[in-house]
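Now read these lines:
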Amino acid sequence: MSVGSKRLQRSLDMRLLNWTGDGAPLALQSRAMGSGENEVLHRLGWNVPKEELIHIQEHWLKFSEPPASLHFLLGLVYIGFFIIAIIGNGLVLWIFSSAKSLRTASNMFVVNLAFCDFMMMLKAPIFIYNSFYRGFELGILGCQIFALMGSLSGIGAGMTNAFIAYDRYTTITKPFDGKLTRTKAFMFILIIWLYTIPWAVMPLTEVWGRFGPEGYLTACSFDYLTNTFDNKMFVGSIFFCSYCIPMSMIIYFYSKIVSTVFNHEKALREQAKKMNVDSLRSNQNQGSQTAEVRIAKAAITICFLFVASWTPYAVLALIGAFGDQSLLTPGVSMIPACTCKFVACLDPYVYAISHPRYRQELQNRLPWLAINEPAEDTKSVATAATQNNEENHEQKA
């Protein structure tokens, strides 16, 4: 155990000893506060056994417990997230793994992303159970399992998004030089997990950082409240490595894709103007969207999902480690927990259901969904050429 962890443990032990005396915090001095003749308000942690209290930051024990209805509402919301994400990501894992036409190198990243989102939602029953029992019901063991799965799936999904951006960048901007084989894709996925695992194992073993409950004590994450140099360094490092790096990669590669496609479409329009024709595309429908608009929308959606998913957590952690901790109320800390789960529900639909071949496989295997996907989809010249080149290369590989 590190020096910082030992110091933290001694501090927690002293807190536990002091809680039995007259100088105990309000959360234990008076676990119930009467605000009316028939109404009793508890503080957070009122129903936590004493042996578990040492794992809860004193910051959270200062706040009153939310109404039971709010716990139940969050539990129901997570049930909805769980069902939507398990079905969506489960279909992606099933179709992309079993359909021969979808077993391409690029789609290995989509499968890895679906696996990360699937794992993220597998921990939802812990939150649901805690919510319906109004607190830290499953104790530190459930907390560590919840936080470990959240770290692995969250950081893994962020890095997978970054490599998906890289793959699409090389495929579109370098269709002949940026070839991706299954072996290369497998190595990239291995790199993703070798990069991700240490950031989950270190706080689990308390080698650097630690896991703990947050908010309503029904969710858990890494500790961003302990005011020690080691913990601040951990928060700063995980912020840079798990948020700034994938965010920068995603923004850079997708901005390059949009720029390339816009320049290509501009060149096509100029060439068509010189040839006195409306368009160089023989299969273009007048009502269809141009390729640059479709690519721009997809890129903006992908960037927005990543920002919406992890920016709240990044801001929360930075405020907890370096800012005014009084801003972090239990209700505020539950917002990032919900945004991450919501994006895990959307990812399979953004990355996979927008895939024409995936929709065709769904149509063939689950005809009752009434998808009605056409055999051919309108493509730009560059997109079609790139796709054909990738298919031929995959067959050779």
Observations:
- Residues 83 and 138 are 22 Å apart (CA to CA).
- Strands lie at 32-34, 40-42, 211-214, 219-222.
- Confidence is low (pLDDT under 50) at residues 12-37, 285-289, 377-397.
